[in-house]
Each structure stands twice: as structure tokens, then as C-alpha cells.
Hints:
Layout: H1 7-24, H2 28-34, H3 39-47, H4 66-79, H5 81-101, H6 104-115, E1 121-124, E2 140-144, E3 147-158, E4 165-171, E5 181-187, E6 193-195, E7 209-220, E8 224-225, H7 231-267, E9 269-270, E10 273-274, H8 279-304, H9 311-337, H10 348-355, H11 365-378
Parallel strand pairs: 1-4
Antiparallel strand pairs: 2-3, 3-7, 4-5, 5-8, 6-7, 9-10
Helix pairs in contact: 1-4, 4-5, 4-7, 4-8, 5-6, 5-7, 7-8, 7-9, 7-10, 8-9, 9-10, 9-11
Amino acid sequence: MAGGLxxxxxxxxxxxxxxxxxxxxxxSAEYDAEGRFPRENLKLLAEQGFMGMTVPxxxxxxxxxxxxxxxxxxxxxFGCPATAVIYEVHNSxxxxxxxxxxxxxxxxxxxxxxxxxxxxxxxxLTEAGAGSDAASLTTRAERxxxxxxxxxxxxxxxxxxxxxxxxxxxxxxxxxxxxxITAFMVDRDAAGVSFGRALExxxxxxxxxxxxxxxxxxxSEADRLGQEGEGYRIALQLLDxxxxxxxxxxxxxxxxxxxxxxxxxxxREQFGRPIAEWEGIQFKLxxxxxxxxxxxxxxxxxxxxxxxxxxxxxxxxxxxFASEAVVRHALQAIQIHxxxxxxxxxxxxxxxxxxxVTEIYEGTSEVMRLVIxxxxxxxxxxxxxxx
Length: 387
């Protein structure tokens, strides 16, 4: 098995690939063309037991490994990258937040609806002026009685208006930087919540992305996740897992690029021979397969070490390598297909459109390099031998 999966995780991979190949992949192009949110896919995944996979058994979940969830994200991205990112945000950035940081009462109230698909969860950290520098966010949380009033604007929110629940990060009055940032759970239908128009994106058309506006939205203390001022730490810890998920999404798309390119190269003939017999094509396929194997190994290892102190570096490395590899090889897949690669019917131009954002969201490639370098310079024993 690729990446040395254990038998249990391999069984999860086999199960999700059956669902992807039988149902999710065949309707993926339709969702993309129509820009339609794949609600049916999410319902199917919930019915099949793939939502909330890492929720501990003590909290009512299946208690599966982070690696098992990672191979599910990868398989979903192989068939429908938009479904993969919706699923990844729901599980890694929202549901995981509840079971990691919620109180017993919050877990009992929220986790069942997140694991059975009643609720889709979203993550609202980014703002127009606070992207890579998330600590500069300006959304306010004003104390009022036994709760707070939230006011501000969140940008580039995946599943905006479609998800039922939002993990919103806001700043307490009189604070700057990471200090005072606090996390809150907000209902889609709460008074004062509204959403901008769906943004017209290069790719991932079935994953709705829009602005979230909060106009004096009241949330109770019971809807605060963690303590006051802990929001930034919570966000960073969740993003470690989210970056593993985006690396897995990139691996899935790279696997699709390889599969489509291999099949086309075997079928397409020029000068009386399949183009797969030409050295120029073979080298492209070999590089693609090699980078896919390397990306999987890095991603799976980061997933295995999700709770290890070294995970921030490993997650950044996996996301950086996998995302840049899929963009590079999506271009090569188009080149292998020639003129047909430029046509929507053959599916590889869409891989490029969908893949590009993996170098941007949940930490740009530049930020990933900063994370890696800062760890390297501070703790060299993690990555290099001393001389």
C-alpha cells in the first residue's frame, strides 16, 4: 500500500474509494459546471460514517486515527476536490475544535449533529486585512451581560451561507496581536449574521466561498470555545491538522492527474505508436509518480504524528511539497493531453484550476517556508545533524 498504511487504515481507504468511484466522482463535473454545493455528497458521507471520524469514542465518535481521516480527504479529492475541502474544513477545523477544546456540555450538544451530518461546520478566521497575519484581525467581541456582541467581516469563508455552524475568531476590546483573540461558535441563522455573494473563483466552483458579516451578533458564554484570549492558540493548533488535510487534498488531485495522464498516454497514438512509448511522455509520468509517492509519505507521516510537538513543521513541509507538486504536475498532465488537455471534457484543466488554491489557503507556500525555517533555526535537531 502507498505510504505503508496499516490494515485498518487500508480498509478505510478501500471503503471510501468505492464510494468515490461509484457515486461522488461521476457527478463531480456536474457540480463544478453548475457551481452547486455538493450537499448530497456530504449527506452520503455522513450516512457511510465518514463524518467526525476522529471524534474519540468517549465523546460518542468512532475514534479513528487522523491518518484514516487523511486518506478519506485524499480519496475525495481524487474524485471531487470541492467535496474534499468542504469535508476537510468540517472535520479538521470545526468538529475537531469541539472535541479538543469544548466543555463536556458543548461536546454533548454539538458533536452528535456534526457527526451525523445534521450540521456542516465552517471556520471563520481570515479577514480582508488579516490573511497570513491572522493575529491582526479586527472583528470585535464586546462583553454584554452573560455573553458577547460580535461585529466584523470575515473573508474567504469556505461553505459560507451553506454551513449551519461557524467557528468565529474575534478580538476583545483593548487588545492587540494574538492577545485577546477568542473563539466563538455562531449559528448561521443568528440575528445579525449575513453573507456576501458567492465569489467567482478560478476553481473549486462547487465549494462556495464568500464573506461573512457579523452585525452585533449576540453569543452567550456557553457558545465561547475555550477561555478568553485562547483563540489564537486554538486556531494555530487546528491549522496544523488543516494543513495535513490540504496536503492530502493535493495528493488526491495529483493521483487524479497521474491516473488520467497514464490512461491517455496508453490510449493515444501518434506516428503509429501509443504516446506512452515516447521517452518524453515516460519522463513526465515518472516524475509525477515519484512526487506523488513522496507527497503521500510526507502527508501520511504528518498525520501519524498529529499530536506530536513536531507536527507544525511536518504539516508545513507536507503541505508545501504536495501543493507545489500538484500544481506543477497538473500543468504536465495538460501537456501530455496536448490540445485535449485544454478542453474541459478531459478533466485535466480542472485539476489545475482546483489545485492552485492549495498553495494559498490554510497558509500560503511562503508562510509554510517561514514556519519550516523558524523551526529549523530554533530547533535544528528536528531536521538536520549538527557538525
